[in-house]
Design brief:
The complex is a heterodimer of chains A (182) and B (456). With 182 residues, chain A is of the alpha+beta class. Helix content of chain A is 61%, strand content 12%. Chain A contains five helices and four strands, in the order H-H-E-H-E-H-E-H-E. In chain A, strands 1-4-2-3 form a four-stranded mixed beta sheet. In chain A, helix 2 crosses helix 3 and helix 3 packs across helix 4. Chain A starts with a helix and ends with a strand. Chain B has three domains: 36 residues, no CATH class; 142 residues, 3-Layer(aba) Sandwich (Rossmann fold); 263 residues, Neuraminidase (6 Propeller), CATH 2.120.10.30. In chain B, the strands form seven sheets. In chain B, strands 1, 2, 3, 4, 5 and 6 form a six-stranded mixed beta sheet that branches. Chain B has a four-stranded antiparallel beta sheet with strand order 9-8-7-30, with no helix packed on it. In chain B, helix 1 packs antiparallel against helix 2. The longest helix of chain B is centred in the middle third of the chain and has 17 residues. The N terminus of chain B is likely disordered. The chains are: A alpha+beta (182), B mainly beta (456). Chains A and B meet through helix 4 and strand 3 of A and strand 10 of B.
Amino acid sequence: MNAMKWLRLAVFLTLCMTVAFGCAKKQVETAPMEQPAAAQQAPAAEQPAAAQSGSDLASSELTQKLNQAKAEITGGRIFFDFDKFDLKPEARDVLKAKAALLKQFGDIRVLIEGHCDERGTQEYNLALGERRARASYEFLVLLGVPASQLEMVSYGEEYPLDPGHDEAAWAKNRRDEFKIIK
Amino acid sequence: MTHTRPLFRLVLAAALCVALAVPAGLTLATRAEAAAPLTIDIYGPGQSKLKVALAQPLYGPDANATAPVEAVDLQKHLVHNLDYLPFIERIAGGTILGGDRLDAFSGPDVDFRRFQLADADLLVTTGWFPAKEAGSWTVELRVFQAFTGKLLVGKAYYDITGPQIPRLADKFCAAFMEKLTGHGEFFLATLAFSKRLGPRDKERNIWTVGATGRDLTQVTDLKGLSMSPSWSNDGRYIIFTHLGARYHSLGVWDRATRQTHQIKFPGNTIIGPTFTPENKVAVSLASRGNPDIYLLNHIFRKEQVLVQNWAIDVSPSFSHDGTRMAFTSSRLGNPHIFLKDFTTGEEKRVTFNGNYNTDPDLSPDGTLVAFARRTSEGHRIFVMDLKSGRERQVTFGPGNDEQPAFAPDGYFLAFTSNRSGKYELYLTTRHGDTPKEVPTGPGEANFPAWGMVPGQ
């Protein structure tokens, strides 16, 4: 009976490891061609770690990569002109990087927040913030990010990044922010 | 002298005819004037002022005795209220020869002469009588035409105690204003508004306050941002937009239960809900990818698309008869005010000046639209006559003046302004009279919305 129990446990652990590494590899395989350097290096780092030291180390590195990806996704804001919601070239570049990470880590879900500066009026700014959030949302979907990974909300002018009342502050406040949905 | 005041237009017209025809016409004119009803046209041009004197309150059974302390309180509230009426100019008691303390508050014993000499048009008297129950009073308030001694308004209020004084002042002033203008709703209306107050100023909740600052009350207690309130026509519900951590929702506060419900919609964008004259709700939702205006039924389900366009369409506002709706649309590039006529289905642009016109509010009769225009000096409130297309600037800052809202009388306009350094509520009129602040306590106040609550 003891021998049977040990055998079952061994089979179970093997299956668990297979599933875990298999999933990680599957995510890697779906990564797009346009990935930024950091994202492209991720799979190469994962495989040796998994082979070297078993589930604890692999899980730890995976978590580290995941956290790094989350930090990169939330770190880069994009900015807009006054009363505009079209994406500037630099904003498209930021979104392309986010799209790569989102496609690589399919479990990450992101809330896109649309924000405005204080110069408009509040109800119109809520609508403008919606258009700004939607501009990012649609671009990410166009790049292949599943819509199920994305949500969006407009906060209009309610949460300025910079409380100042000059063009420098307003330029920072006309933005999309990206938050991880927990 | 009062006989030269343009407010007596009919009388003056008659007097002029007589004066032209008869050299001694002035005497006849004075007599004609004495017999004419004293009214004021708050909607017409050339609005003038009436001079009003408040006599000191008297103790009814003995005019030589001192009136109760509640009388002093009522006097303060009357003065406070009357100061909100741009067409009233109060005469200070100290400027009246012989003083403002009378020997009688009614009947032929009232000494009108001293008020005539002070050029007063109207005289307000108050008499206090002890009621059967200790600590309560019967209060008699009268308004006389100072020149003739004619009684214009006479009201008695029974079993009045101290806490009822503010409400009594509102009711009397409503009757007073109605007698003069045909509309007294102002003093009985309740403003709902959004107030930023709470941890790190990150929360907005819905509050209510009387138009002159009374009965300030918080009605919602939600985390996040509650904004754009609108009263139902029966005064039972307030709907509003709520911005939470991830979601917008339509908030519905029920005055009967004091409970708030939140409803989410596909698209996660809910902007500027407003009750229609039929007690349904019009609101901007982004269900189809951009904010369009929908009509919701009585259970808040989509019933009809009111405005659908590729652009932003927000801030619906309806005329009282429901045939017209003003709204903001960016369909031509910049935000402008548009008008939808439900009888023809036509949507037409009505603002052609400036390049940022938002926050429209239709007057109850649907003839005027107030809106905020972004100028080089900040946002300013304009009022446009929809028939002629003529517009008039009615606020002049400093800072930003936004979110105009016509009172039920179509005369007063509430708006929000940061002229003091923070956003607070103010009142002006369709003519652009000097703005007066509505006291709302600490915290920023925005989105004034008028409502008539039963029993107030």
